Amino acid sequence: MFQNLLIANRGEIACRIIRTARRMGLRSISVFSDADEAAQHVQMADEAIHIGAAPARESYLNIPAIIAAAKRTGADAIHPGYGFLSENPAFAEACAAAGIIFVGPSAAAMRAMGSKGSAKALMEKAGVPLLPGYHGAEQDASFLADAARHIGFPLVIKAVAGGGGRGMRLVRASADFPDALRAARQEGASAFGDDRVLIERYLERPRHIEVQVFGDSHGNAVHLFERDCSAQRRHQKVIEEAPAPGISAEMRDAMGAAAVAAAKAVQYQGAGTVEFIAQDGGFYFLEMNTRLQVEHPVTEAITGFDLVEWQLRVAAGETLPVQQKDICAQGHAMELRLYAEDPARDFAPSIGALQVFRLSDQGLRIDSGFVAGDRISIHYDAMVAKMIAHAPSRAEAIARLRAGLAHSDIIGVAHNLDMLDRILAHLDFAAGGIDTGFIGRHAEALLTPKLQPSPEALALAALGVLALEDDAARTQAANSADPHSPWHATDHWWMNTRPARVFDFHLEDEVHAVTLMPTADGWRITTGDMEIAARHTKLEDGRLHALLDGMRLSASIHRDSETISLRHAGQSWRFRLPDPITRAGEEEGGDDRLLAPLPGQVTQLMASEGQEVARGDVLVVLEAMKTVFRLTAPRAGRIATISCRVGETVREGQILIQFAAAETD
């Protein structure tokens, strides 16, 4: 076994690998970019080395820099994690040329499976079921359009080198094919440096089921059962579980056998995942990921094996520790991906400091590369953590996750905690066997529900504001020259009167008034036509506890200037509590400007100063966290000034384009 392991990755996967390396007695070495100097994976490792600037292409995708770091630190093996260079055959070859063990499959296996087209041709020879489609080398647009008409609509265009939904377009009619092809090629070139595509028949309601496989250098290959990854947004997974609910034992055996056949077809070594789409009892090869995957913890949970340890032992030349007959599944496991993104804004990524980052680990496994105070960067993926539950049954796993979400909170960036809870609570999801279109079909209920804050939530918000004021006053008193001065008192005592406190909580276009009147042992709270008696209010580690009408309730509470963030009963609220002295007026002229809706890098400018444009024309292409956003003209008119340039990193709300004033008669 090698002794010095460099991890060519970052975040939660680097932290995850470090934990296993430490348990095995290996020296762990992290690499980091300018943006990650203080990151958790840097602090956890035995040693860390700087490899370049923040953009991934200058650091985590920089093969010479990583090889040089490995040589400088004496690493005799490199684990690529997932993403970045994990499926790059040139990286595996560079490791071999430097005399360093690459923890992963051979470059030949990666090349065979890295191209969706060649992989499907190989699978066809191996007898693995395929969808009707075109997977060839010809890429002429007219040829592909003819192939599409022959396959029939609806169909899907996929970037040959794609993954994670990037470079993928659904096409329902022949007339839409040319624009979809251009968009898929552009995204494939941007994300993967390869604009080639393939075309496949589109299944209307498929399930996404994948099988974990493992091979060694001695010709052995096994599968470790399947995972259902059908809960997806924008073709990217948000919930994974094992085993897949509702599939027959015969189908499970057939998928496992097909996955092992796929692995053996390329003499696969290490961890890999064979992905299928399934519908109406049939299943079809989708692709093979030649790496460990984000969702590997659910497989670890039901089998009891450490897959990273398996990777390291296989890379060192050892045989697989067990045979297929020795692998069995126990219970049910489910994983939630926690993202810094806004589901209500088409999952727009969010960056900023994690002012609060509190994830419940009661009966759960939490994999994360962040702690409170860390910053989410524009340069990398938006996932901040994974929450995994393992229980005797699927229903119990869901219950544990919902309890975990209820006691978790993220403040400082937008997040998907509420959306995940709504998915888990949905009757169709609870029944099992959802398809990949589930989130899209129920978008209004899952992503942008029109919810009103309950009287209890408003009461907790008001009590929380008081508690935060008291806490701030005590801190100020302690730091003052006279900490015992009565002027620091916050007991709300006035002579000959009982003053009420009134809070106007603004939520979108509505104002929710809450009045608090002191009583002998607490407060009488009025909101709308409801009255609530509150007692025993206590603020502890950012969580407020109170007795409301005899019921003990709690909520996470945080204040940042006029913004009051509250999370209670699985729902997050961001109220605005205006300061009447400093409150500014509403901005005007929004239609005369194109603003950056989120931080990102300008990759294309589609207009010039003085140009006349129509409402809806694409003017700027912005890329953030591996996602491409096409920003359109808010109105028809003439462009007066362009205040950004290609390659520039812009902040959220920055003016990109200013329109000339509209002419009036």
Largest sheet data? 8 strands, antiparallel
Number of DSSP E strands: 39
Secondary structural class: alpha+beta
Report the span from N to C terminus: 81 Å
Choose one word for the global shape. globular
Which stretches of 5+ consecutive residues score pLDDT under 50? 493-497, 581-589
Please tell me the overall pLDDT: 91
Number of helices: 17
Strand content: 25-35%
Radius of gyration: 27 Å
Percentage of residues in helical conformation = 25-40%
Strand order of the largest sheet: 14-13-10-11-12-15-22-20
Write a structural description.
This protein is α+β, with helices and mostly antiparallel strands. 27% of the residues lie in helices and 34% in strands. It is built from 17 helices and 39 strands. The chain has an eight-stranded antiparallel beta sheet with strand order 14-13-10-11-12-15-22-20. An eight-stranded antiparallel beta sheet has the order 24-25-26-27-28-29-30-31, sandwiched between helices. α12 runs antiparallel to α13. The longest helix is centred in the last third of the chain and has 24 residues, at 455-478. The radius of gyration is 27 Å and the shape is globular. 45% of the residues are buried. The model is unreliable at 493-497 and 581-589 (pLDDT under 50).
Topology (elements, then pairings):
Blueprint: E1 4-7, H1 11-23, E2 27-33, H2 40-44, E3 47-52, H3 63-73, E4 77-79, H4 89-97, E5 101-102, H5 107-114, H6 116-126, E6 133-134, H7 141-151, E7 155-163, E8 166-171, H8 177-192, E9 197-201, E10 207-215, E11 221-233, E12 236-242, H9 249-265, E13 270-279, E14 282-289, H10 296-303, H11 307-315, E15 332-339, E16 341-342, E17 348-349, E18 352-353, E19 356-358, E20 365-368, E21 375-376, E22 383-391, H12 394-406, E23 409-411, H13 417-425, H14 427-431, H15 438-441, H16 443-446, H17 455-478, E24 501-507, E25 510-519, E26 522-527, E27 530-540, E28 543-548, E29 551-560, E30 563-568, E31 571-576, E32 593-595, E33 600-605, E34 612-613, E35 618-624, E36 627-632, E37 637-642, E38 649-650, E39 655-659
Parallel strand pairs: 1-2, 1-4, 2-3, 4-5
Antiparallel strand pairs: 6-9, 7-8, 7-9, 10-11, 10-13, 11-12, 12-15, 13-14, 15-22, 16-17, 18-21, 19-23, 20-22, 24-25, 25-26, 26-27, 27-28, 28-29, 29-30, 30-31, 32-39, 33-35, 33-38, 34-37, 35-36, 37-39
Helix pairs in contact: 4-5, 12-13
